[in-house]
């Protein structure tokens, strides 16, 4: 068996970057997803706790989106922890998790995320990862695997648990779920149709325990995975070793494939392409010094495209895209932060909380992006304006004439004057909502409108 001799020992260098004062430090890229959308390579990651979307262009890997949703309840930005891309009806969606919530965003425009739906569980299940098993979006947590439909409704669940959620995967199978247990040196194979573990494969995992990903190939009934000594090809029926490739003691991380002939694996030092049939080396690439910062190859994605297979490497200090010969096509370095940030917390104010019908009310606010386009929604009308260079705005609105409209949200009472006139006292509580078009921040404030109608 051919070996790749390793002479250069790399140390994992953790570089600390900052966004702006009081912002979370940028984290390294170690995982994410990639997909072919309309023959365009789209890459996603949430390792920075933001949803970052990249595309491969002629001049390299370019970031198209970098943002977090605003949590109105706690008046802060939320953090994302995992992302899965999926194409449905020719549109591209990103499924993202944050604590107890899973979100579905339409990102077909690539540089803009439109929230389609969100689903928060009420039983305090903290989601660790989102993935796709077969045709279904799934979440993985300490409580097991939950299956969602495209409307984010839970349609099934399996009691499959692992202290390392990353070690639960489908491996590309439509029906099987693999649970790698390094403590017991075994892989449990769970059949979704039979709803049980159908076999347990005894595997000798060598080295330190860390995130493990495997690839399952139904074509040759084999499972491929990497430990800290070798990449193994084992029989999926009985766990017997069919072939292996030694990579000399570096951590084994991801193993991926997008076809029937080759696999790629990452061992920190770099990426190696192997033939599936005999596990011989096709080519390899050290990724430590491919970009301006030292790297450490961890997560991998292989994507089939008309221009040839693309390999995405989450290289700790950067994200690297290679072709099937492992030539670098582009990269993006961690810490390059071009996000636009709000300068203050989101707020809205009124010059009066109660106004008479037909009179003016001034709404002001801030916490939106600098110079952002805003839309005010008030009593069925939309008002378009732009925030100033610190994200603030002011707008004078006119309260509607309640006598000329009807609403179920109003209160009504009558009184009689000394001269015998009947007075209808009308009061209606309405919302003024302000939506940011770039930040997607939305905030509302209540206004009470009063009116008097005097009749004989």
Briefly, what is this?
This protein is mainly β and 456 residues long.
Explained architecture:
By secondary structure, this protein is an all-beta fold. The chain has 2 domains: 33-333, 7 Propeller (Methylamine Dehydrogenase, Chain H); 347-455, Neocarzinostatin-like (Immunoglobulin-like, Sandwich), CATH 2.60.40.230. 0% of the residues lie in helices and 51% in strands. The chain contains no helices and 39 strands. The chain has strands spanning 33-37, 40-45, 51-57, 60-67, 70-71, 76-77, 82-88, 91-98, 101-106, 114-120, 127-133, 136-141, 144-148, 154-158, 168-169, 176-181, 186-191, 196-202, 214-217, 222-226, 230-235, 241-246, 255-256, 262-266, 270-275, 281-286, 299-303, 310-314, 318-323, 328-333, 347-350, 354-356, 360-366, 373-378, 381-386, 393-398, 410-416, 422-436, 442-455. The protein is elongated and about 100 Å long.
Helix content: under 10%
Radius of gyration from the alpha-carbon trace, in angstroms: 28 Å
Biggest sheet, in brief?
6 strands, mixed
- Count of helix runs: 0
